[in-house]
Amino acid sequence: MGLDLERVRADTPGRAETAFFDSAGSSLPPHPVLETVLAHLRREAQVGGYRAAGERADDLADVKIALGALIGVPPASVALSDSATRAWSDFFYAVSLRAGDRIAVSHIDYATNAVATLQRARAVGAEIVVLPSDAQGRTDVEALDPVLDERVALVSLVQVPTQSGLVEPIAAIAAKARAVGARVLLDACQSIGQIPVDAAALGVDAISGTGRKWLRGPRGTGFLHVREELLSTLEPRSLDLHSAQWTSTDTYELALDARRFETWECDVAARLGLGRAVRYLLDLGPEQVFAELSRRAAAIREALAELPGVTVRDPDDGPVGAIVTLTIDGVDPVAARAELAARGVTVGASSASSARRDLGARALPAVLRISAHAFVTDEDTDRLLIELAALARRAGAH
Ligand SMILES: *Cc1c(COP(=O)(O)O)cnc(C)c1O
């Protein structure tokens, strides 16, 4: 069964404003998500935040149940946070590292993760090693053995980078990492909501994700999943009265479940909105959504390949997802994004400063990024292609 695209479009009021191709940046929430957030803010204004949250206790508990169902893990292994970055660092800084340990990162590493890795490696005297990649930019599973040995304490992976359609062979890399006893942390920011993510099949220790991208949730939401057997061994770098209990004047006890990575205070409305967004996706079917997004991305890549002056920058072989990246001869992607926005077409751009190893190795200062969600219509896509062709023509004429 395909998706009910009519319903998805009718549920997305923001579509009327712009042809929207930036779901990898910050997507348009469906109406039920927006209503959930607004209704809770109104209720807080009527009865105060504590009573309002109490009234929604079941729905708040359901946020973790829904996320657990989405990635196939128990709700108690999920911690809610205010961003994927926070979730990622909560795990990253809790893994114990000693001088001489190695942290392995991939070629497509994201700037936020990269700077934290640099900081921590310096602080503890660890060494950073980069996993080998193939000609397409994917981690080369066959070439991992010389790099992955027992000195590697932590492997930091990104399933789908912010700057290309590439999809990493996570399960195969994680299997090799586990074989040498390394912890595996997966940044699933660009895959969650785009590609079905099954934690057990991937075989990683922890997964971080964000609400506002492909999940179409509110801003300021994210989550961390940590494998249950591992939780009791990890002491978060900061605690409060929710992640731990003050058991006597001189003692505290950490929460036994993933709550040890949460803080008590949070944006309750946004959190309810995140839960609603995950339920919305589960209702549509993550597999169906992925099939639809893949179909669209393939059609856009095919159409772009026909445009003079346009070069698609995604891998042309192996698994690719719904992020489409391109450059236009003689056009600065960041300036092009602004020009397109002024003409009612919203796209993203990724600069080398967010992905130095990948875009740096390809000598690309930046790329334009097209990320179409299921609510995008064929007319939106036609508009996008017309505008991109016009940009290429104008640049070619100089
Ligand atoms: C957006 C993004 C992040 C950061 O997510 P936040 O919710 O903004 O913290 C991390 N990794 C990748 C690959 C991303 O694209």
From TrEMBL:
Residues 20-384 form the Aminotransferase class V domain. InterPro entries: Aminotrans_V_dom, Aminotrans_V_PyrdxlP_BS, EgtE, PyrdxlP-dep_Trfase, PyrdxlP-dep_Trfase_major, PyrdxlP-dep_Trfase_small. The keyword Lyase applies. Its EC number is 4.4.-.-. Pathway: Amino-acid biosynthesis; ergothioneine biosynthesis. It is an enzyme of class 4 (lyase). Its cofactor is pyridoxal 5'-phosphate. Probably catalyzes the conversion of hercynylcysteine sulfoxide to ergothioneine. Belongs to the class-V pyridoxal-phosphate-dependent aminotransferase family. EgtE subfamily. This is Probable hercynylcysteine sulfoxide lyase. It comes from Tsukamurella pulmonis. The lineage of its organism: Bacteria, Bacillati, Actinomycetota, Actinomycetes, Mycobacteriales. The gene is egtE.
